[in-house]
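User: Teach me something about this protein's shape.
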Amino acid sequence: MPLQPQLAIILGTGLGQLASEIEVEKEISYKDIPNFPVSTVEGHDGKLVFGRLGGKEVMAMKGRFHYYEGYSMKEVTLPVRVMYELGIRTLIVSNAAGGANKSFEVGDLMVITDHINAFPEHPLRGQNIPTGPRFPDMHEAYDHELIALADEIAAEKQMRIVHGVYYGTQGPSYETPAEYRAFHALGADAVGMSTVPEVIVARHCGIRVFGLSIITNMGISDTPQIATHEEVQEAGLRAQQKVNTLVKELVTRMK
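Assistant: First, the predicted structure itself:
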């Protein structure tokens, strides 16, 4: 009997190793899927993976699509629409992000509790697709029960995690120190170039969401760092074991 996963995971920059925890039954390259975008970012494998993780059937994206690559928001979020049609009802999104909160440290795992959408195009712009209402509510964009479960797991494993608001920008340039200060003043704890459009579309489809950021560089601190894509990837890889432990345990216990 073919797999019928109800859970999907989007793996961001430097987080592809989580796929090695999946008992893979099938992999499909994005380039082999009709009308599917192709990831152009280094560190994104560009594959859909189907298999089992923590005893559950799952679907995973090894690499995502970004607005800064030149794709429209419809193309960026197409995979989430496909997930919904395949029966996905819970989505775990992950990303690498710059810290905008001085209490954070490089390598921290930040559970996303909310987001600020600063993309110049909204993913629901245009004719409403009848998976959800014209004006979807975003009061609980990130599922409170899954956040509480992650906190429980982290306490049991004596693992440091932090909570925060993710600020989504179009990229691809990294933020200036002044921008980090401005975003923090607006309520942001971390800044990145993805995730928000995917979450909006997922919630429009009624898919519940858990979001996780790896803090790969500190944009707001007493000693701000110069960020490079290579260093962001390396920081993501160093935090990989913590990500694997938290996500695998979360999937195992998820109802």
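Now, about its shape. Residues 137 and 148 are 21 Å apart (CA to CA). Residues 240-253 form the longest helix (14 residues). If you'd like, I can walk through any region in more detail.
User: That's plenty for now, thanks!
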